[in-house]
Automatic annotation (TrEMBL):
Residues 13-65 form the YiaAB two helix domain. The chain crosses the membrane at residues 12-33. The keyword Transmembrane applies. It comes from the Bacteria. It comes from Nostoc flagelliforme FACHB-838. It holds the Pfam family YiaAB. Keywords: Membrane, Transmembrane, Transmembrane helix. This is YiaAB two helix domain-containing protein. The lineage of its organism: Bacteria, Bacillati, Cyanobacteriota, Cyanophyceae, Nostocales. InterPro entries: YiaA-like, YiaAB.
Length: 94
């Protein structure tokens, strides 16, 4: 049976993704704060940004969970096939 190891991201990749996230949120927040509009508009845009970030995290987690479920299902199916093949004797004609 083929073993599927866990995916390990390099520390450089993790740092880069967190840095990109922090920088993008910071710059967008800075832009919203400095918009030449009243507080209601800034609040509406800020709320939209917060919901967009939250839904992005949810979508990423859901996509990852679906991928892991499919991988686990594929491994279980492969194990069942291997068990059937190991029990099969082509010379036994009973």
């Amino acid at each position: 049976m083929q073993t599927i190891g866990t995916q390990k991201d390099s520390s450089a990749w993790v740092i880069q993704t967190w840095a990109a996230f922090v920088i993008s949120i910071s710059m967008t927040s800075f832009g919203i704060v400095n918009l030449p509009v009243n507080g209601w508009v800034k609040g509406f845009i800020s709320m939209g940004m917060a919901f967009s970030v939250g839904s992005t995290f949810t979508l990423a987690k859901t996509t990852r969970d679906l991928h892991e479920t499919r991988r686990l299902t594929a491994r279980l199916d492969e194990a069942k096939v291997e068990k059937l093949l190991s029990q099969h004797d082509p010379l036994n004609f009973k």
